[in-house]
Design goal:
about 15% strand; DUF6716; seven-stranded parallel sheet; Rossmann fold; 3 domains; about 400 residues; six-stranded parallel sheet; 15 helices
Length: about 400
């Protein structure tokens, strides 16, 4: 089995490298990073690859056309698309255009907590042959959503690939680690409020470090754009205690020294629980789709800032575990599922799956998608020209949709 893994942003590189790490040893693997505006810094890349066989090795960063030529020359059986949603269709088109023989099997997935199932995430991945998900609940909810949307999609279960084997750590550290996220809390006021709680926690526990564990420093790209980075906001916080510190790097290193982890809804909560590190999932900003924390309902991990100030961290309830990321290893079927699709491809030519949405516009839409995905890494003349046409047209379409929504709500 020949596998080409293509990744782009920090979280997708971490996920793709970890999936590669779990692949059967007899599979031949190749890993590349697609050059895009969210290409991580060298420090972020090192952190994303830590703990995998790719750590410390040079990873090629290639333009889209170079990746397409690489795929055509090496003819992988499987292409694992460890990419942000809008980029996937662009890469599939490029590989298909360069393929002169039987196409590869396209496999994809999501790099962390994916509850609730998301229509947009599914739409972006509709052309892939197989989607890897990481909990029994995720498979169930995404399958139901695909049926509701009329998308024929196959799903497979894979334990979160960067999850350590569940075990209890010997308590060797006193750090309180905060797993920051770009998307939540959303507003500057809420982020400053949260930062104030962390500072007060540091003051109440002066013998402990309170570590603001970030995905990147100010100016470093991330999978999701961060409007109000915590390290920048820290400069606005009066009298920040000296034991409130900012850190970057592999989350696994900080969990080794953690007495507890606090977050809104980071997948780091699952990593911590797997190591026996107690967790607090803050619910002061609500529990819902926007906070990405619905998955923690019934887990016993939700709590408010008063629990944070008291350093009241918890382990998940036993009756929550199996449905949510801690299923028995024998339930994983992703390797068999990939092999099954590859076997079908060997027997008959598999047609490329139908793209669910974004089909209008023909070649011009394809040029627009490519420019939006690659930014300055799209060197085509058509890509530069389409922005002059596409941006005004897109604004007009969005305005029309907004007007229709207002009319419907007023009716």
């Amino acid at each position: 089995m020949r596998v080409l893994v293509i990744a782009d942003s920090d979280s997708y590189i971490k996920w793709g490298a970890a999936v590669l790490q779990r692949m059967p040893g007899e599979w031949s693997t190749d890993f590349v990073v697609l050059a895009t505006p969210v290409q991580p810094s060298s420090d972020q890349l090192d952190a994303a690859l830590a703990g995998t066989r790719l750590a410390g090795t040079p990873v090629p960063v290639l333009e889209l056309d170079e990746i397409a030529r690489r795929a055509a020359a090496r003819r992988p059986d499987v292409v694992l698309l460890s990419l942000r949603g809008p980029v996937q269709r662009v890469v599939i088109r490029a590989i298909m255009a360069a393929t002169v023989t039987r196409r590869p099997v396209f496999v994809t997935g999501l790099p962390g907590i994916s509850i609730p199932a998301n229509r947009l995430a599914l739409s972006f991945r509709s052309q892939t042959d197989l989607v890897l998900l990481h909990s029994i609940r995720e498979v169930r909810e995404f399958a139901a959503l695909a049926h509701e949307m009329g998308i024929e999609q196959e799903f497979a279960l894979a334990t979160l690939p960067f999850l350590p084997e569940r075990r209890t750590l010997e308590r060797s550290g006193d750090d309180i680690v905060f797993a920051a996220q770009a998307k939540v809390p959303r507003t500057k006021d809420d982020r400053m409020l949260l930062l104030g709680w962390l500072a007060e926690t540091a003051r109440r526990h002066p013998h402990r470090r309170v570590v603001l564990k970030l995905r990147g420093r100010v100016g470093e790209p991330q999978t999701h754009a961060e409007q109000f980075p915590f390290d920048a906001l820290l400069d606005e916080l009066p009298d920040a205690p000296p034991n409130l510190v900012v850190a970057t790097g592999p989350m696994s290193e900080y969990l080794q020294r953690a007495a507890g982890l606090v977050t809104i809804s980071s997948t780091a909560a699952i990593e911590a629980a797997a190591l026996g590190v107690p967790v607090l999932a803050l619910d002061d900003f609500g529990v819902g789709r926007r906070q990405i924390n619905l998955v923690f309902e019934g887990s016993g991990l939700l709590g408010d800032h008063e629990a944070l100030l008291a350093a009241d961290f918890r382990l998940p309830r036993e009756d929550w575990l199996e449905d949510n990321y801690f299923h028995p290893a024998e339930r994983d079927d992703w390797v068999a599922a990939i092999e099954s699709v590859v076997d079908r491809r060997a027997a008959v030519d598999l047609p490329l799956r139908r793209q669910y949405a974004g089909r209008l516009g023909g070649p011009l839409r394809h040029v627009w998608d490519r420019k939006r995905a690659l930014g300055d890494h799209d060197h085509t003349l058509s890509g530069h020209l389409v922005m002059f046409v596409g941006r005004p047209a897109r604004r007009a379409v969005l305005a029309l949709h907004a007007m229709r929504r207002r009319v419907r709500s007023a009716a």
